[in-house]
Amino acid sequence: MNRNSIELLAVDGGGTKTLAVLVDANGTILGEGKDGATNYHVVGASEAKDALEKAILAAFKDAGIDTGNSVYIKKCVFALAGIDTENDEKQVEDVVQQVVKDLSIKSSNLIVENDCLSALLGTTGDKAGILLIAGTGSIVFAHDGHERIFRSGGWGHRFGDEGSGFWIGKQAIKSVLKMQDGRGESTLLAKLILEKFKFTKIEDLYNWAYSESYSVDDVGALAAVVDKAFCLGDAVSKQILDGAVEELLLLVKTAIENANIQQDEFDLILQGGVFQNNDYIKNQVHQRIQQNFSNVNIITTTEEPIRNIVRRGLKL
Question: How far apart, in whole angstroms, are the C-alpha atoms of residue 203 and residue 186?
């Protein structure tokens, strides 16, 4: 392959998986590679580096690029989850620089930024817009159309991620444990969650939650169980989903007010598994946002975030 034909390396790295793609100047994908999580808060810096390298090497292989020599790529965009503070920026920048060095990548323009921010800029360009991602975690970025960016949420599963799949799953487990004590209402969630994990009693759920087998992804997957119980008429599940709606609305409203675009026409992009898999939450968020902001254009997308990151990179 002509080494000068590689316009962009775009990487979308999250808490579950990582996707790396090589594209030409027209945005045509030349090669792609996948690997595991690269959010260093979740897996640590060393494992994040390894996953990045494996994903990029797989993309090189798919594109037929010989990695025995240095590879020149005009622009590189590393859009990675877990970049939320100045310390995060430094930590992740160090990881990326080591990856670039190890793989002998030469680039004229290398960008390392939060994955949600990168996807927003790739979607809205210079226009005002909001991107709300509600998957395993949750975060909002707002662009005021004048190069200023505002963030709401995204503080991770320990203290944040309100309204996300993980948050919903966590509320479900808490509801089951409260029911067990007699402190909470009876709920179908107990039966469905035990079936999901193939546990025989609620004590097994508790033991798992404090074991090495516990994972954020497994808790996040319980959002589908809550939706199932809700569809079966479970009142506790409806309360959980209503709570998720309120949390997501608060994230969006805060970002809109901070960006001061209440009176502007703007796009609101809803992205992530919560919106793709839970019609109740999606419809409630749609309805409530439109009631409060008449100039909003709501877009629910199933497009992979990597496409927005590619558009972001090609605009640089």
Answer: 16
- Both 162 and 271 in one domain: the answer is yes
278 and 156 within one domain = yes
Tens of pLDDT, residues 137-179: 898 989 888 878 888 998 878 888 899 999 999 999 999 999 9
Q: Which two tokens stand for residue 178?
A: 């409260």
Q: pLDDT, tens digit, for every residue of 2-57?
A: 555 689 999 999 877 899 999 998 889 999 999 998 988 888 999 999 999 999 99
Reduce the DSSP state of residue 201 to 3 states and report it.
coil
Report field, pTM of the whole predicted structure over 0.90: no
Residue 182 domain flag: yes
Assess whether 100 and 222 both reside in one domain.
Answer: no
Dig out the tokens for 23 from the structure.
């594209």
pLDDT score recorded for residue 5 = 65
139-161 in b/e burial notation, b at 16+ Cβ within 10 A?
bbbbbbbeeeebbbbbbbbeebb
Q: Which domain holds residue 69?
A: 3-120
The per-residue pLDDT for range 84-106, each reduced to its tens digit, is 788 999 999 999 999 999 999 99
Half-sphere exposure of 260 (CA within 13 A, CB side): 3
CA dihedral 39, 251, 136, 273 (to 10 degrees): -120
Q: Is the Cα torsion angle 260, 263, 267, 268 positive or negative in sign?
A: positive
Q: Do 84 and 144 reside in the same domain of the chain?
A: no
How many Cα atoms sit within 13 Å of 126 on the Cβ side? 3
Of 96, 120, 144, the one marking the end of a domain is 120
Distance CA 268, CA 49 (A): 33
